[in-house]
Design brief:
The complex is a heterodimer. Chain A is of the alpha/beta class. Chain A is built from four helices and five strands. In chain B, helix 1 packs antiparallel against helix 2. The radius of gyration of chain B is 15 Å and the shape is globular. The chains are: A alpha/beta, B alpha+beta.
Chain lengths: 113, 145
């Protein structure tokens, strides 16, 4: 798994590629926690390069969402591949997250938030 | 269903060993020409089963946290070709098929963290069976091609 970070219009954008599994989810957790500790509550997570996510990865995203929600923030998910989207649907996670087709839509949403 | 090929690995029942297991499954399925999508689905089911073992099987059992898990993968031949995965541990008896709860409707704040794995296993394999034999938890997953 690879994680890269950038900031667009003051919104942190975290892009992940590869597999979010039992081995790699901790790295994502660290990146998201670091941003939240830096008082970033509106975060875009680009999953465009992610082909696989297990429940361990879902828990990391849910934990981050639970931390930013009370701060009027959000974890905006973008560019999900079909298998990842299906895993979100099976687990009911599509109802928990704001999901966007691409970064542009998520950033527009973040701006209007 | 006739099983003519089986390979197995035994690893410590720890989360950091799960990629070893999923890579074992992936390599076997790739070498036998399974569809990459089906391979990912089986890998996910196996990862979820092994995550449960790593988290719960040996928790508090005689203070022993150093248990093992054994994963056997076989290509099942017959009317339909498929993968048969057997996940075994020597931990606390636990039947995951009896712990399938409906997915919570709760929002993010109240959403319980557990119980997702078994839903994913159920969704991505065609058959799931649990037995407790000779002090072992034996979970068998079958996925047809």
């Amino acid at each position: 798994m690879e994680i890269s970070q950038t900031t667009i219009n003051d919104v942190p954008v975290v892009s992940v590629s590869g597999r979010i599994d039992a081995a790699t989810s901790r790295d994502l957790e660290t990146v998201l926690n670091d941003l939240i500790e830096q008082n970033q509550s509106m975060i875009v997570l680009d999953l465009g390069g992610v082909e696989y996510v297990s429940s361990v990865g879902l828990r990391v995203m849910l934990a981050a969402l639970k931390k930013v929600k009370p701060k009027k923030g959000d974890l905006l998910l973008v560019s999900m591949q079909p298998f990842v989207k299906e895993v979100f649907e099976i687990t009911g996670f599509t109802r928990l997250f704001a999901i966007f087709p691409g970064q542009a839509e998520a950033l527009l949403h973040a701006k209007s938030h | 269903m006739q099983e003519i090929t089986a390979q197995e690995i035994i690893v410590p029942a720890k989360k950091d060993q799960i990629p070893v297991v999923t890579e074992f499954v992936e390599a076997l399925m790739n070498s036998r020409g399974f569809d990459p999508q089906k391979t990912l689905e089986v890998m996910l089911a196996v990862e979820e089963a092994c995550t449960n073992v790593a988290l719960y099987a040996y928790a508090g059992k005689d203070g022993n946290q150093e248990g093992l898990m054994r994963i056997a993968a076989g290509i099942a031949h017959g009317k339909h070709r498929g993968m048969k995965l057997t996940i075994e541990d020597w931990g606390i008896p636990f039947d995951p098929t009896k712990h399938i709860k409906p997915i919570s409707d709760a929002g993010a704040e109240e959403r319980p963290i557990g119980g997702l794995g078994i839903h994913l296993i159920k969704s991505y394999v065609d058959d799931i069976k649990y037995k407790h034999i000779d002090g072992k938890n034996v979970l068998t997953l079958i996925k047809y091609e």
